[in-house]
Amino acid sequence: MPRPERALDPDDPWAPMARQLRALREAAQVSYGELGRRVYYSGTAMSMTAATGGGTIPSWSKVEKFVTACGVTDAGELAAWRQRYDAAAAAARPAPTNPAPTEGAAAADELVDPAAAQTRAQFGAGLRALRNQAGLSYKQVADSSKGVLAKSTVGDLLVGRIWPTEATVKTFVSVCAQQIPVDVDAWLTAWQRITAANAQPRRTVTSTRALASRAPIRDDCDFLRELAARTPLAEFAETLDGRDRRTLTGAAYRLAMPIVFHQITRHLELRRGHVRCAVSSRLLDPECHDRFADDVDAVVEDLLRQARIRISNLDGWIVSRLNAALVDANRRRRGSVGAMQRPRLPQWLQKALHDDAWLTWLALSILDWVGVPVAAGNGLWPLEAWAQRHEKITSTYGTDTAAVERDIARVLTVMRCRPAWYERFVQEPLARKQQRLRPLYEEEEPQVALRQRREAQDDRLLELSNRAIEEIRIRMGRRRQAPETVVTEVITEIFAGGTGADELDRPPGEDGLDTHIANLLVDPDGVGRIVTAVLAVINDSSQPVLGPDVYAPEQHDVAA
To answer: Which of 207, 228, 287, 462 to pair with 546, CA 20 to 30 A apart?
Structure first.
């Protein structure tokens, strides 16, 4: 059996309208639960707070949903219900506590005087009194502002949670002025006076020119870190020219190079299989070094252009900006040759290629490749790499480069259907692409002379030594362990942790590298000599990295 409805208060001005709505529901023979399901409200919300509960005036949207759920769908009937709602709502709303006066001077004395407010609290109290005199609720103020003020904003303003802007004060007072005579300009003048009196003084930053005159600029990473903590680095750099600018830029390069190498270059070279290039920036191959130099240039340029705040941790700030700096530099390089900064296929090109997976990928790769400054080998396109990609996309094996060239010609033919687009994004960037230099005389490659086993062993030891030095430097900067512990761990991992595949040509009976390393690490004097040599190399950056002499099978010793 359904629960009976709550009795209406006879003194409630909304009670007559609530009775009409209850009668409508009973005539439709619909329960409150069914009404809630039809309009996605709960039965309690429909009966107590939406329309028929009494005590409060519901919004027209809720009453309209109630009536519609009861079966009233005709536009004329809905208009009649809206008239009843407006009349009942107007009768139920209380009259303003301070009705608008009808006579000038006497009425003005009864209104709130904004000139009397001296503090923010007094100004907020005046706004609350003004709303009460206008007889408006928070929602009515928000609705009358035509979307400028939200109901929550009005509440935050009147309880003092926020300090309003000038536009907010003007809108709020203008809404109240629709009900009572209010001098809007007087309220704005009071707001400006109180805002100026309570304004927080701005923190002064030392003038960059004055800072430059205090001490000479040094090509030093520590100086750059201290400078960035005291003043915005980019603004300081803009005030410099000539020698001072070059010196500051040199310090930025000193700081950026190890960060770029360890955060970007080292991981990329390891993924490419360039183990030697991943050891140190001094061991980078020419092509790898060019990529590294481009990345460092991008990071330094980003640092001297974007560092417009004081930075207490400059190294961390640079690391956080690495991806953005490199992406921005790559887009600017592509834009300088006229290529698309972010290659995307236009819809007309996709439709012309019939949305074929391979051809659309090839078209996108062409748009990307024309922005690369250097061509592929002696040809224009990286045919072998694209042939491998064709096998993966189409699941067909044995694709030759001639088939890829035919597909490239097909895609370019489709692109030429838009001559202006083709000339701008394909032809002009291709004209600026640099061909790789070819040898003056193309001869047969000379036969590589066989190396002595000792020479090959020295080269391998040089590579292992550099890897060990770099790893020890990293671990000692990251951990607080004794140098003997770190050196022993790294040497064991790098020199004695291989698979033995590189010692297949070792004569029978001769001890291997892992055996000699184990003998050295067992001897305390041997460990001490190794640690001393390693620390000397790390502490003295001018000293060359350990060379082949680090491993001498005849002496079982280490020498720097």
So the answer is: 287
